[in-house]
Amino acid sequence: MLQVKIVPVTAFEQNCSILWDSDSKEAVLIDAGGDAAQLMQEVEALGLNVKALWLTHGHLDHAGAVGELASRWQVPVIGPHKEDAFWLDMIQEVSARYGFPIPQKIKVDQWLEGGEVLTLGDAEFEVRFAPGHTPGHVMFYNAKHGLLWTGDVLFKGSIGRTDFPRGNHQQLLDSIQRECFSLPDATQFISGHGPISTIGYEKQFNPFVASKAG
Questions:
Q1: In angstroms, how far apart are the furthest CA atoms of the chain?
Q2: Spatial contact of 174 and 153, defined as CB atoms under 8 Å apart
Q3: Read out DSSP for 26-50?
Q4: Residue 213 pLDDT exceeds 70
Q5: Burial class (CB in 10 A: 0-12, 13-18, 19+), 91
């Protein structure tokens, strides 16, 4: 059975998700953004065997611990879309600019396009390409459990910033309509920051997109 634990990391309180299969104890981390030692402790305490690191996009608070963890655990890095390669290439420079610890470089083993299906135990996750916040942003959707990981595309009551290099506001709105609001209203989503919400709630109450929900 699929289990999830959210661990906020970095000064930006980014929601790193630890996902695991309760039978096999195989696990993946979505957006291991920093605080590698803390994440390793969490994984050890849960008795998990991490098989991969998944990335929604290349910003430092989502990817900062990925290089170190991939090296320590000898696991592949999967995602984001190759259009975010420039962000990952700059992660050390950007981290220094923000006063963050300088992370290890990241080698992506599998770039995602959208439409792929990733697996963990018997759980399947559809990759949904959702550019706008960054040009290579992806999301992960588990239909069986009605769970969506939106990264920095959609938040409870808000949407992602688009004032970073190669951000695009209209593209972000289009991604939300196409990749988020096409899902059932009962779908819960875990965003990169802040609390869990549902697609139906955002359609009705999110001031940035509610009027466009139709």
A1: 47
A2: no
A3: EEEEE---S-HHHHHHHHHHHT-EE
A4: no
A5: buried
